[in-house]
Task: structure prediction
Amino acid sequence: MSNLPLDLVEEILSRVPATSLKRLRSTCKSWNNCYKDQRFTEKHSVIAAKQFLVLMLKDCRVSSVSVNLNEIHNNIAAPSIELKGVVGPQMQISGIFHCDGLLLCTTKDDRLEVWNPCTGQTRRVQHSIHYKTNSEFVLGYVNNNSRHSYKILRYWNFYMSNYRVSEFEIYDFSSDSWRFIDEVNPYCLTEGEVSLKGNTYWLASDEKRDIDLILRFDFSIERYQRLNLPILKSDYETEALSVVREKQLSVLLKRNDTLEREIWVTTNDKIDHTTKNLLWIKFLAIDQRTCYHWSCVSFFIDEEKKMAVFCDGYIGGINETSRRMFYIIGEDKYYRELYVGDSPIRSHRPFVFNYVPSLVQIPQATVIPKRRRRKRKNRN
Result:
């Protein structure tokens, strides 16, 4: 391929999946230059086939997870889930958020790191002078002429009786600075927020109206917007939110009267900042006898196989350890539990999510060169 025109080489490479292209970067200098070119990486993110890998935050480290669901319908062997090993830099992660192939990590020593697991690139983001230790962070972007302009939202709430104080700050990668926004969020947010097309989605509660809803933060206008859940009945509780192949949202609901769970998936052709109403269809019903002991879980689904994989970590344990479990649920009441290890009870709850490898470059802070001081001539 060395004799091919550069434009044709870029066209070919832009169709190679991200993880394969990562291994090819050392083939020659021109290929490696493509890898570093923002224009090429943006083209690659649009054209190349998407890969969906499973990552898990467990015991303050990120591990890759091998999930095999292919053998279920063949009745050849039981499905398998295996932790493949720790990936990434040596940092103790207490919180993680996935957006556009980038991971926004909050560390145990209170640092804020942006990390691309596919390229290995990292960047530390300095906290603002208004930072508070119990702040939450999410990563998003705005499309500017087909280029992603990345931002971080910091939100902080302080509750006292019926009184609440909130702060909202935006960090802009392009300016390497924080600024306050005068947004007001009247809703209570749950954990397990997700990113879709650059915007962030939460499960939320409207306490005044006693209903649950989905709350979206639109990074283009830097405002919250409310969206509908599939069911508004008071006998349901919302438990977890997930993203399906970077196109749809899925939600896990629990019936208060029977403890039965249901997974619903959006049917909108395109969900972005212009979507005002979500359309839903029931994906899977889960019998209460298989899930009565679950607490708050993270999950993802496989639409083709009509399967759902859940992760939970508080099933009890001995000697100050807690069992980390995966649960595979399918049609016709298929159910399987898979044990993946013990962890200290005081460690953070495990979190599993679909990761889409990307070559996107993390915008780096602009370094202003220091002026050289001119030497004064000795007049003597």
Q: What stands out?
A: The helical segments are 6-13, 18-24, 29-36, 38-47. The first strand starts at residue 53 and ends at 58.
